[in-house]
Amino acid sequence: MSKKETDNFFEKVYAVACLIPYGKVTSYGAIATYLGMPRSARMVGWAMSSSHSQEKEIPAHRVVNRNGILTGKHHFQGKNLMQQLLENEGIEVVDDKIQNFENVFWNPSEEL
DNA sequence: ACCATGACGTTTC
DNA sequence: CGAAACGCCATGG
């Protein structure tokens, strides 16, 4: 890692992820845009990959891509753990895709 | 410094 | 609708 394990950028990503309301989801691009880096959506996902190292538990299952598809489900333990977590929060998920995505979408730039 | 990789996003076919 | 190409940016070899 660099000077600090968690740069300010990472810290913000984790902070926003933890602020996602129960039963809601957001996209990597939305977080990146909120942080002022709309072109660094990949970095957000990359930060999530490191979220497992964070002491604080990051609800990464609430973060999906712009299409509402659970692209990162393979990074979780089980095969469909991510989907089950979302369904447990009342989010409809079919074939790794969130239904009524606009309805459950949470935009930090607007809500926060 | 260069190349390869990736939990993304948009455009094009 | 699905797959591929291109762009973007940070990290590692």
Describe the protein's architecture and organization:
With 112 residues, the chain is mostly helical. The protein has a single domain, classed as Arc Repressor Mutant, subunit A (Orthogonal Bundle), CATH 1.10.10. The protein contains 6 helices and 4 strands. Strand 3 and strand 4 form a beta hairpin. Helix 2 packs across helix 3. The longest helix has 12 residues. The protein is globular and about 35 Å long. The model has no long low-confidence stretch (mean pLDDT 90). It binds a DNA duplex (13 and 13 nucleotides) through helix 2, helix 3 and strand 2.
Chain-wise SSE layout:
Blueprint: H1 8-19, E1 26-27, H2 28-34, H3 41-49, E2 63-64, H4 81-88, E3 93-94, E4 97-98, H5 101-104, H6 108-111
Parallel strand pairs: 1-2
Antiparallel strand pairs: 3-4
The structure holds a DNA duplex (13 and 13 nucleotides).
